[in-house]
Amino acid sequence: MDETGLHRAQTSMVLATSLYRGSHLVAGIAGVVQHQWNRPVQWLILAAALSSSAVVHTTARRKGRLVPRFVWIDVAVVGCLLPFCAYLWGGAHTPASIAWVMLLGGSAAAMAAAAFPIRLVVVATALLVATHLVGYLLVGADAAVTGGHLNALVFSAVVSGVLWWYFRRQGALLDAANERALAAEAHRARYAERISHHQALHDTVLATLTAISGGGVDANTPEMRRRCAREAAYLRRLVEQTDDQGADSELLAALEESVRAAEALGLRVTARYHEPPRVPGDVALPFARAVTEALNNVRCHAGTGHAYLTVTGDSGRLVVTVVDRGRGFEPGSTGGGLGLTRSVHERMRGIGGHATVDSAPGEGVSVELRWPR
Fold it and tell me: Rounded to whole angstroms, how far apart are CA atoms 57 and 16?
């Protein structure tokens, strides 16, 4: 399934917040290794921050978006709880020793801005600001350090919110552009289909009517009556195709060519199209050729001049049946079977489809073609 613009925006924010948190964790690892490597509590705090980050971003990558409940846990634990743990049990009693824990609050605020609606972003940011203000007051940080940190924390949320808005807007514009392109392509396809129908009508039905109205042919001859019957059948199929707006025009055009080729050789075909699913272009033509061979089998072996073609969809599968009421044959015998085996079964296998032949002497033949198998 193709990605939507919103999904791409969410994926981009997951990546951006992952990188931001990663930079803070690297700074934390460096701070603990350089200055507090002999304090086990500091390593436990770092492990808790790493675990929370792993849960948030692993889940986000799996779901394609930041999950609010895990972000809330990260804000509460990493942003609000760990600074007090570092102060109470980790020996972080100076601004320098607690700075790396405070730094994680900025990436917690950024994740909140990408995961929550605006009112909850304000709540989360206010909670982080209050917690970090108390934390810096406890370690006796001066106003410049405290103000600079709180400013960075708030603007982490602001910048992340603006980036998330921009990604969503670009995603919406991309989706709109894709919809316009698809609509234009559908319009071109419908126009090409109308032109094809107009040309076919000009070369068949209108040519027949013109010949009759001009008196150049006798409308009562058997050949002219058969020709008129073929053109009437074509018009009925054309009306059915026009009514079915969701049909695959490429597939129907290929099947119609098979039907008209059989009719040109004297076989009467009653065709009905019932909302066939769309199929790839490299499937439509081989499928239609398999139908041609099934119709040829009726014309050459069935002992009847009439075939019934039904095209439909079944749970996303294309199903076509070709039925005659002719002499039939014994399954497993060579009568009628060689052409079907070589031309129908092999073609269907070649496109990942399946053909089923059902017949009995005196009971006619039913050929069912399915794609995919």
Answer: 11
Chain Cα centroid distance, residue 212: 52
CA distances to 251, 301, 303, 328, 355 from 363, in Å: 30, 13, 12, 5, 19
How many angstroms separate the CA atoms of 13 and 74, rounded? 16
Which residues lie below 8 Å from residue 122, measured CB to CB, with a gap of 6+? Answer: none
Nearest residue to 325 (alpha-carbon basis) of 270, 365, 356? 365
Which residue, chain included where needed, has tokens 């040519």? Answer: 207
How many C-beta atoms lie closer than 10 Å to residue 48's C-beta? 15
367 DSSP assignment: E
Q: What is the pTM of this model?
A: 0.58
Cα(188)–Cα(20) distance, rounded to whole angstroms? 46
Torsion over CA: 251, 254, 257, 261 (sign):
negative
The two three-digit tokens of residue 112, written as one number = 């909140």
CA atoms within 13 A on the CB side of 20: 23
Q: Which residues, other chains included, contact 46 with Cβ-Cβ below 8 Å and sequence gap of 6+?
A: 25, 28, 29, 32
Structure-block tokens of residue 239: 């009306």
Contact 337, 288 (CB under 8 A): no
DSSP for 301-346 reads HSS-SEEEEEEEEETTEEEEEEEE-S----TTSSTTHHHIIIIIIH
Cα torsion for 186, 231, 201, 273, to the nearest 10°? 0
pLDDT tens by residue, 324-373: 998 888 876 654 445 566 678 888 888 888 888 888 888 889 999 998 87
Sign of CA dihedral 188, 189, 194, 195: positive
Contact in structure between 70 and 118 (CB atoms under 8 Å):
no
Q: How far apart are CA 62 and CA 2, in angstroms?
A: 17
Distance (Å, whole) CA 294 – CA 288: 10
237: region left, alpha or beta (phi > 0 left; psi from -120 to 50 alpha): alpha
Q: Hey, is 271 helix, strand or coil?
A: strand
Interval 162-200: pLDDT, tens: 999 999 999 889 888 888 887 887 777 667 666 766 665
